Amino acid sequence: MIKTINHSVAFLQKKATKATPMDSAVVTDLMDTLKANTQRCVGMAANMIGVNKRIIVVQMGMLSVPMINPEIVKQSGAYEAKEGCLSLEGQRKATRYQEIEVKYQDQNFKAHTQKFSDFTAQIIQHEIDHTNGVLI
């Protein structure tokens, strides 16, 4: 179901709690909401739709890839990026890494560890920041 975008800074700054299989409907809602905002958004975290769980969805080409309980375990190649956010006005600077390695669970709660680089890595870092209550 397409959800309304949350703009409450106080809510967005709360650290999200670990997701469980009971939160699987949130993944569907996130994917639907990202699809509805595809013209202006390439990633989304659950707190952006008012759910304080560690769930993100990242647009990778034509695919929307959900990541449950994502955690960056390695990073390299720091740089400064200028980013916008659907939940916030304007753009801000953020330190990002060119390459990252992420541990996460898929929609079926199967564990994965995967490397990402470039713009995809930047999107994932932005969304994981959301799960940690970190805003740009």
TrEMBL record:
Regions that span the bilayer: none
Pfam families, sorted: Pep_deformylase
Source species, domain of life: Bacteria
A GO molecular-function annotation: peptide deformylase activity
Listed SUPFAM superfamilies: Peptide deformylase
Family membership noted in the UniProt record: Belongs to the polypeptide deformylase family.
Xref: NCBIfam families: PRK09218.1
PANTHER family: PEPTIDE DEFORMYLASE
Protein name as it appears in the record: Peptide deformylase
Species this chain originates from: Secundilactobacillus odoratitofui DSM 19909 = JCM 15043
